[in-house]
Design a protein that fits this description.
mainly beta; four-stranded antiparallel sheet; 12 strands; 7% helix; extended
Length: 204
């Protein structure tokens, strides 16, 4: 498995060779710098630590600045560990060229936070009776949640109102439609989690 850290630019659409309009997401993938190499001898596992998006020096701690200095790069805002099949050294730069058009990738990110939401929006409930007939102001209510005299409690995991969004989400098997190497852009079919300019992890 291999991948890159990227930033969600936004959504657009392109036409394929048959004239079909395909919705896609534009991701600025890389360039990412190898800031640390994990090995079995030292860490007990093999992985690469990648850094993405330059960070202002005055907002960086001395310890973090020293860590990035070993890799010969400036401090980075986003750091992620990924496993790679190929061998890379400290300070190597990975670009969008690791992806090819036509292959399928998984994109992971934090979904948009929507705050405290009711059961209709959060879980797709139809509402009490699914109509306003005789319901007064309870159209979007959850309905009965208890369980009679036994067990006289609400079961754990009951779908109820609560905080919605703001969770780690991975969308799998998105087709790479286009790779724009000179601008580090990746066009993938469909939508990916997160708001505009949110960090995402694109993995093969």
């Amino acid at each position: 498995m291999s991948g890159l850290i990227g930033r969600k630019i936004g959504m657009t659409s392109i036409f394929d060779e048959n004239g079909k309009n395909i919705p896609c997401t534009v991701i600025e993938a890389g360039p990412c710098v190898v800031t640390q190499v994990r090995t079995n001898e030292v860490d007990g596992y093999e992985a690469l630590q990648l850094g993405f998006d330059d960070k202002n020096e005055k907002h960086t701690t001395k310890a973090a600045a020293g860590h990035f200095k070993k890799a010969g790069t400036v401090a980075k805002k986003k750091v992620v560990e990924l496993q790679f099949e190929n061998e890379y050294k400290l300070g190597d730069v990975l670009t969008v060229d690791v992806f090819t058009e036509g292959e399928f990738v998984d994109v992971q990110g934090v979904s948009k936070g929507k705050g405290f939401q009711g059961v209709v929006k959060r879980h797709g409930f139809g509402g009490v009776g699914q109509s306003t007939h005789g319901q007064h102001n309870r159209l979007r209510a959850p309905g009965s949640v208890g369980a009679s005299s036994y067990p006289s409690r609400v079961f754990k995991g009951m779908r109820m109102a609560g905080r919605m969004g703001g969770a780690n989400v991975k969308v799998q098997n998105l087709k790479v439609l286009k790779v724009v190497a000179d601008k580090n852009l990746l066009l993938v079919k469909g939508c990916v989690p997160g708001h505009k300019n949110a960090y995402v992890i694109v993995q093969k």
